[in-house]
């Protein structure tokens, strides 16, 4: 028999390797749902109460990226993972160059209205962490609650669908639950207009391929994924008249964004003209995918509770570039709306991906016969924190733009085409939203 010895490390010493979150306010907190349920816990964020749309995410990691994703605008984010905050929050600044876009996370600040966790880490430990989750929430004026049964909340949201809620903090916890009329529905507002850049700006201007980006609430990693493939990126407001300057670019990219795509019909109608008159590559993600679908003639609808998490399987129905038909890809998602699967599909279009769990449309593409090169996917190939099963779709898109540029450069120029004047852009920045 082999002797087995056990070395026990004192609890106080083992816990000493992490950094304490600092003093906690210990204010009472309660999450009220419009459907009548209430969950009592304690506050660890900003001492203010707030209304929002209560949703859940099944992501196991990357809580900082989720919280800074503009697609969570107006939402009270419930994390299904029990322990949140154990690796703290990093310093959120990077250089703006050919490799990065100015921020480490998905935007300059927290985008969700509030967060709900079962157990917030009292200590955090990571080589890049500069503050705790609690400190970050307080500094960003974002309320947060811990000590609640997130399993019960998630089951409610799974069964009854995404539900309006109110997170009450401190003295507000003793007040009665809000009446149905008092709940604020962020879906009634144009959230895209709140998070989109107000002025055009450029990234990596010396890149070898010029790509315009319509910003519906862009995650920084989308822009980073384009810049690192040596694209010269010009970011435009969501409702910018791209058709007036489209001759300056080799491709068009439509980003993710929050809320109801029907608030962005102005962009969809302008894109319809682009798709009819322009033959250069177009790629859309999440909200951008829905705008492409609406422009193509498909309908968008509100899902019961949406898909949010880093573990959503999708089945490829067609091959294109690095994507192979018949393969299942694991993806990251964050959306409440989707495109309806219609039969027949609009002429010149075909389904690209389907969700393996609920059979919702996860992607569309132009058919080879259409002569167009357009793709839209509901998931996030660029997901920071992973999975990265479909990250090469960015390479496919940028390579397609380069190939089209090369073909056009070899064609005889047309001198009598009237060109719009060049437009001015601001220095590179990732817009912060309050």
Automatic annotation (TrEMBL):
Domain of life: Eukaryota
Family membership: Belongs to the CarA family.
HAMAP family (UniProt xref): CPSase_S_chain
GO cellular component, one term: cytoplasm
MF annotations from Gene Ontology: ATP binding; carbamoyl-phosphate synthase (glutamine-hydrolyzing) activity
Annotated metabolic or biological route of this protein: Amino-acid biosynthesis; L-arginine biosynthesis; carbamoyl phosphate from bicarbonate: step 1/1
Signal peptide from the UniProt entry: none
Protein name as annotated: Carbamoyl phosphate synthase arginine-specific small chain
Every Carbamoyl-phosphate synthase small subunit N-terminal domain range: 27-168
Single biological process term from Gene Ontology: glutamine metabolic process
EC number annotated for this UniProt entry: 6.3.5.5
Entry annotated with the keyword Ligase: yes
Complex and partners: Heterodimer composed of 2 chains; the small (or glutamine) chain promotes the hydrolysis of glutamine to ammonia, which is used by the large (or ammonia) chain to synthesize carbamoyl phosphate.
Keywords for the protein's UniProt record, in alphabetical order: Amino-acid biosynthesis, Arginine biosynthesis, ATP-binding, Glutamine amidotransferase, Ligase, Nucleotide-binding
Record's catalysed reaction(s): hydrogencarbonate + L-glutamine + 2 ATP + H2O = carbamoyl phosphate + L-glutamate + 2 ADP + phosphate + 2 H(+); L-glutamine + H2O = L-glutamate + NH4(+)
């Amino acid at each position: 028999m082999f002797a087995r010895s056990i070395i026990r490390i004192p609890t106080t010493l083992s816990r000493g390797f992490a950094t304490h979150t600092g003093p906690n306010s210990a204010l009472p907190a309660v999450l009220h749902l419009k459907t009548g349920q209430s969950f009592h816990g304690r506050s660890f964020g900003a001492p203010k109460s707030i209304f929002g749309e209560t949703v859940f995410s099944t992501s196991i990691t990357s809580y900082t990226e989720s919280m800074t994703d503009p697609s969570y605008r107006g939402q009270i984010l419930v994390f299904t993972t029990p322990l949140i905050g154990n690796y703290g929050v990093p310093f959120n600044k990077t250089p703006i160059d050919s490799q990065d876009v100015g921020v480490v996370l998905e935007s300059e600040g927290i985008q969700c209205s509030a967060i709900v966790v079962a157990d917030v880490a009292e200590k955090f430990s990571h080589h890049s962490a500069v503050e705790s989750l609690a400190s970050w929430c307080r500094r960003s004026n974002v309320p947060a609650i811990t000590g609640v049964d997130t399993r019960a909340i998630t089951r409610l949201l799974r069964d009854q669908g995404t539900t309006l809620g109110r997170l009450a903090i401190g003295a507000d916890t003793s007040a009665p639950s809000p009446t149905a009329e008092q709940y604020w529905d962020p879906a009634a507002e144009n959230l895209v207009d709140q998070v989109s850049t107000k002025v055009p700006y450029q990234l990596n201007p010396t890149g070898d391929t010029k790509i315009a980006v319509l910003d519906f609430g862009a995650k920084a990693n989308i822009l980073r994924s384009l810049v690192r493939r040596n694209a010269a990126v010009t970011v435009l407001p969501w409702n910018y008249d791209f058709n007036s300057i489209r001759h300056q670019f080799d491709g068009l990219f439509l980003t993710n964004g929050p809320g109801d795509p029907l608030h962005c019909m102005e962009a969809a109608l302008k894109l319809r003209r682009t798709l009819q008159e322009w033959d250069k590559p177009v790629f859309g993600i999440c909200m951008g995918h829905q705008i492409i679908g609406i422009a193509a003639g498909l309908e968008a609808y509100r899902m019961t509770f949406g898909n949010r998490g880093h573990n959503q399987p999708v089945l490829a129905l067609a091959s294109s570039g690095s994507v192979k038909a018949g393969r299942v890809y694991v993806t990251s998602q964050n959306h409440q709306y989707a495109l309806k699967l219609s039969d027949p599909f609009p002429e010149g279009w075909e389904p690209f991906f389907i969700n393996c769990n609920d059979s919702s449309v996860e992607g569309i593409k132009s058919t080879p016969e259409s002569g167009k090169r357009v793709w839209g996917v509901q998931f996030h190939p660029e997901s920071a924190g992973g999975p990265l099963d479909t990250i090469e779709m960015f390479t496919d898109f940028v390579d397609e733009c380069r190939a089209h540029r090369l073909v056009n450069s070899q064609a005889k120029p047309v001198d009598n085409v009237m060109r719009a004047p060049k437009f001015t852009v601001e220095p590179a920045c990732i817009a912060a939203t309050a």
